[in-house]
Amino acid sequence: MTITVYSKPACVQCTATTRALEARGLSYSVIDLTEDAEAMEHVTTLGYRQAPVVIAGDAHWAGFRPDMISRLS
């Protein structure tokens, strides 16, 4: 499964999300929403207005969601 974290600089919830993924040994990629206009449009189209946005397979969510992260491992 591919996990992508759409993040912003100095985002506390983004950092918490990537740390939780690392703690579970899950590999992921990070895309900076402030540097990628297409990525920003993609997450906006999904209805999200806050970072991070995590897309993991068919699941996606916004914010720091330890409950959703635990379902991935």
TrEMBL record:
Sorted UniProt keywords: Disulfide bond, Electron transport, Redox-active center, Transport
GO function term, MF aspect, one: electron transfer activity
Keyword Cytoplasm part of the UniProt annotation: no
A biological-process GO annotation: cell redox homeostasis
UniProt KW Transport keyword: yes
Database matches in PROSITE patterns: GLUTAREDOXIN_2 (PS51354)
Record family assignment: Belongs to the glutaredoxin family.
Function noted in UniProt: Electron transport system for the ribonucleotide reductase system NrdEF.
PANTHER family: GLUTAREDOXIN (PTHR34386), GLUTAREDOXIN-LIKE PROTEIN NRDH (PTHR34386:SF1)
Protein name: Glutaredoxin-like protein NrdH
Record organism: Paracoccus saliphilus
